[in-house]
């Protein structure tokens, strides 16, 4: 990691605390471009030594417009960094068994390095069963129980892209975590829980953690208790899917606020729909030290980390004999 981006942000820190001003708005787009540049350079070196380009297969079920948009962003990012990709479209009424058969076929296809199934899936399909059907060595989403378990044990693994993106935002911006208080609003197994895991675990381990004291809140946390936690939090990660969950009166001055929420709401003035996060951005930016916008914050980072996982998957295949891969899939 080059020091220039960190130094730039740390200069902002000094300016911010000397004179009270609005929060530093962290550009997820800018950080994502930096990471994609790193992936591209890594990939070119990999290919120059005689290896083929990594290949990412994406299974997209149904016609959810948001899912189609997300997948398009992922395949465009893949092309940008030099990863080949394909999108396999399936009708909403595909059976779970048919989807499992397709995943099994791609698991054993040596041409495929990374494999993801775009979520959410139709109600008749068990998402957990599908996530666990993807080979752990090709699981670029980091959702397989083997990868989740390794993450919880502080071992090197495929980290879920959004939590990893949040981690990189915090680290590359120079926001300290050691001994700090963190509030994670949201306990989902794919986002909230992994974020908390990354931030609270030991920084000396194989998969270094943030050494922070982490509190997780959820939909049943009383508002007054939530406020007690947010007011002492040095870092707040909002990932509950509730617009305006975090407001200025709930945070302490200078806190870092990372907004993972993606909510579509109707603008009362124009009547048009727009994307907002879980944080009252305009209000909180007057009091926070750092804040991420929605859109343009965590979203681009998620895609960038997915590209890093795809390259990691391509390299891991060389480290895992076929029999070990089959054992991992069967477990």
Q: Output the structural class.
A: alpha/beta
Low-pLDDT runs of 5+ residues are 1-9, 13-18, 321-329
Mean pLDDT: 92
Net shape: globular
Share of residues in helices: 40-55%
Query: How many domains, as an integer?
Result: 1
Order of helices and strands: HEHEHEHEHHHEHEHEEEEHEHH
Straight-line N-to-C gap: 36 Å
Please state the CA-atom Rg, rounded to the nearest Å: 20 Å
- Name of the CATH first level: Alpha Beta
Query: Number of helix segments?
Result: 12
Please, what is the CATH homologous superfamily? Answer: NAD(P)-binding Rossmann-like Domain
Work out the number of β strands.
11
Question: Can you summarize the main beta sheet?
Answer: 6 strands, parallel
CATH-level-2 architecture: 3-Layer(aba) Sandwich
**How much of the residues is beta strand, in percent?**
5-15%
Q: In order across it, which strands form the biggest sheet?
A: 1-11-8-7-5-6
CATH topological fold name: Rossmann fold
Note the main attributes of this structure:
Rossmann fold; alpha/beta; globular; 331 residues; 12 helices; NAD(P)-bd_dom_sf; methylenetetrahydrofolate dehydrogenase (NADP+) activity; methenyltetrahydrofolate cyclohydrolase activity; disordered N terminus; three-stranded parallel β-sheet; NAD
Topology readout:
Elements: H1 3-18, E1 24-25, H2 28-48, E2 55-61, H3 65-81, E3 84-90, H4 96-107, E4 114-117, H5 127-133, H6 145-152, H7 161-173, E5 181-185, H8 192-200, E6 213-217, H9 223-230, E7 235-238, E8 256-259, E9 263-266, E10 273-276, H10 281-284, E11 290-291, H11 298-319, H12 322-330
Parallel strand pairs: 1-11, 2-3, 2-4, 5-6, 5-7, 7-8, 8-11
Antiparallel strand pairs: 9-10
Domain Tetrahydrofolate dehydrogenase/cyclohydrolase catalytic: 26-141
GO molecular function: methenyltetrahydrofolate cyclohydrolase activity; methylenetetrahydrofolate dehydrogenase (NAD+) activity; methylenetetrahydrofolate dehydrogenase (NADP+) activity
Keywords: Hydrolase, Magnesium, Mitochondrion, Multifunctional enzyme, NAD, One-carbon metabolism, Oxidoreductase
């Amino acid at each position: 990691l080059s020091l220039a981006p960190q130094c730039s942000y740390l200069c902002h820190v000094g300016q911010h605390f000397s004179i009270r001003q609005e929060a530093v708005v962290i550009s997820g787009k800018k950080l994502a471009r930096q990471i994609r540049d790193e992936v591209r350079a890594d990939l070119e070196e990999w290919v120059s030594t005689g290896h083929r380009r990594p290949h990412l297969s994406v299974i997209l079920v149904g016609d959810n417009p948001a899912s189609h948009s997300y997948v398009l962003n992922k395949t465009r990012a893949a092309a940008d960094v030099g990863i080949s990709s394909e999108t396999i479209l399936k009708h909403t009424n595909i059976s779970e068994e048919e989807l499992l058969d397709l995943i099994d076929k791609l698991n054993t296809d040596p041409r495929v390095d990374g494999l993801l199934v775009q979520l959410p899936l139709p109600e008749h399909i068990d998402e957990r069963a599908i996530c666990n059907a993807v080979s752990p060595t090709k699981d670029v989403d980091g959702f397989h129980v083997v990868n989740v378990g390794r993450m919880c044990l502080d071992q090197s693994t495929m980290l879920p892209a959004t939590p990893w993106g949040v981690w990189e935002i915090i680290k590359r911006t120079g926001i300290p975590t050691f001994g700090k208080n963190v509030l994670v609003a949201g306990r989902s197994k794919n986002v909230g829980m992994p974020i908390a895991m990354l931030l609270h675990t030991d920084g000396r381990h194989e998969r270094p953690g943030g050494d922070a004291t982490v509190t997780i809140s959820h939909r049943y946390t009383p508002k007054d208790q939530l406020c007690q936690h947010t007011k002492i939090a040095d870092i707040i990660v909002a990932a509950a899917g509730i617009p305006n969950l975090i407001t200025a009166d709930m945070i302490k001055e200078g806190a870092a606020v990372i907004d993972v929420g993606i909510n579509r709401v109707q603008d009362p003035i124009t009547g048009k729909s727009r994307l907002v996060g879980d944080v009252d951005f305009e209000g909180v930016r007057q009091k926070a030290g750092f804040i991420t916008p929605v859109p343009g914050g965590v979203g681009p980072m998620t895609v960038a980390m997915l590209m890093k996982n795809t390259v990691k998957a391509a390299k891991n295949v060389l480290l895992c004999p076929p029999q070990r891969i089959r054992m991992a899939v069967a477990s």
